[in-house]
Write a structure and sequence with these properties.
Elements: E1 2-6, H1 20-30, E2 36-40, E3 43-44, H2 53-59, E4 64-67, E5 70-73, E6 76-77, H3 88-107, E7 111-115, H4 117-131, E8 135-139, H5 142-145, H6 154-163, E9 166-169, H7 172-180, E10 188-190, H8 205-212, E11 219-224, H9 233-243, E12 250-255, H10 261-270, E13 277-281, H11 288-294, E14 297-300, H12 309-316, E15 321-324, H13 329-332, E16 340-342, H14 346-358, H15 363-370, H16 375-396
Parallel strand pairs: 1-2, 1-7, 2-5, 3-6, 7-8, 8-9, 9-10, 11-12, 11-14, 12-13, 14-15, 15-16
Antiparallel strand pairs: 4-5
């Protein structure tokens, strides 16, 4: 099966951890017998002479590169940050279409596998219509939980979902939301993310703490996630403040970076727990196993999610997660022996952390459970759905539909 994966959320030479979960799914799919995958990961065009370091990174991304077992292409498209958001999908299409047309002439793809509904999914559907290719769109979270609220973007999302041959939600709530927005229910599927067991496995807790320079005798909560509003770090800080009196040696380490660092530091200081909350910054994906293994419990305090990869990562390292009952968390934590689900408020999170710290957990059981959901399993489910989608599309079109503009 010949697949063109289309997504702007993909690793590149300047940001090797960006969109790592999409890379894992696509890479493992490409490793299956008979599979052939090429990736278009468009990036905004940015003039090198403008003094904006954040956006200048885009100009340093190579036009083509090999990442793992994948050939990745980075066509440029014009974009004015924030101002052009309603035109983002169209601009991405205009910039990426020539590259997609050239690749299709060479490799004769069976379908387009698009990740992120807007703008990527919309651009992919436009490309698919030009090349007479079926398009399957995967929703990841914010693209469905947030963007449909914008009145100029919502109609574009609805149109793209209605035009797609198939849609995938990484959690059941996302799948249902896509159907509510216009996707056909019988063409929708839930395929959650997986786990890379070569990166995540249990390590000795004391050795992990020594490796990171953490206190050996502390009770440690680890929270992995960007310092963004949806990740709920303020709820975690308030929960730690509630537990601080009874648990004098309790510390929380937040692994991630973002714009809300100063706000979180200020909150911790105001609550008198600045010595308990440690914002340690971002770490490469392959080093996160040390943080999970060093913890007594992990915590995901998000107020909205698609499928939180951190849950399986924590479980694979033998560490129980306490997670808010949002997005795909109930699908990842299927019993109280695998972790605790709580409501997204500080009181419930504090109670969940307290219960998890008191409970005796079977680390082998946790890691064994995570091992049942590898990326190879995800790739198999993905192949099954893509084959089904392509077959449905062929049944609806005539042989003349094979023409390439």
């Amino acid at each position: 099966m010949r697949i063109l994966t289309f997504t702007s959320l993909f690793p590149n030479a300047r940001a090797p951890a960006f969109g790592i979960f999409i890379y894992q799914r696509v890479s493992h799919f490409a490793s299956r017998p008979g599979a052939s995958v090429h990736v278009i990961a468009p990036v905004p065009y940015f003039p090198t002479w403008l003094p904006m370091s954040k956006w200048r990174l885009h100009s340093q991304v190579p036009k083509n590169e090999i990442i793992g077992n994948l050939s990745v292409y980075h066509p440029r498209y014009p974009l004015l940050p924030k101002v052009a958001m309603p035109l983002h999908g169209l601009l991405m299409f205009l910039g990426a279409y020539p590259c997609a047309r050239t690749l299709h002439r060479q490799f004769r793809f069976d379908c387009i596998d698009a990740h992120y509904v807007y703008p990527d999914g919309l651009a992919a559907v436009l490309i698919g219509r030009m090349l007479n290719l079926p398009v399957v769109i995967s929703a990841r979270g914010t693209d469905i939980n947030y963007f449909p609220a914008f009145k100029m973007i919502r109609p574009q999302i609805r149109w793209a979902l209605k035009q797609a041959t198939g849609v995938i939600g990484v959690s059941t709530p996302l799948k249902h939301a896509m159907v509510e927005l216009g996707a056909l229910a019988d063409c929708a599927r839930t395929i959650g993310n997986g786990i890379d067991l070569t990166r995540f496995q249990p390590l000795d807790r004391s050795q992990a703490r020594r490796h990171l320079g953490l206190p050996l005798d502390a009770q440690i909560v680890v929270s992995v996630g960007a310092l963004a509003t949806a990740k709920g770090h303020p709820l975690l800080i308030r929960a730690i403040a509630r537990l601080a009196t009874e648990r004098s040696n309790l510390h929380a380490y937040v692994v991630g970076e973002g714009h809300y660092r100063r706000d979180l530091q200020r909150q911790a200081r105001n609550l008198g727990v600045e010595d308990r909350i440690h914002l340690v910054g971002a770490y490469p994906n392959e080093q996160l196993k040390y943080w999970y293994s060093a913890a007594d419990v992990s915590c995901l305090a998000s107020t909205r999610e698609g499928w939180a990869n951190v849950l399986l990562e924590s479980l694979a390292c033998g560490i129980p997660p306490v997670a808010t009952r949002v997005g795909g968390a109930p699908e990842a934590i299927t019993s109280a022996d695998l972790g605790l689900l709580v409501e997204p408020n500080a009181e419930a999170i504090a109670a969940g952390l307290d219960a998890a710290l008191k409970k005796s957990w079977d680390r082998n059981k946790l890691s064994y459970y995570a091992a049942t959901r590898t990326w190879d399993v995800v790739a198999e489910e993905m192949e099954e759905f893509l084959v089904e989608a392509v077959a449905k599309n062929k049944a609806r079109i005539s042989p003349a539909g094979d023409r390439i503009p």
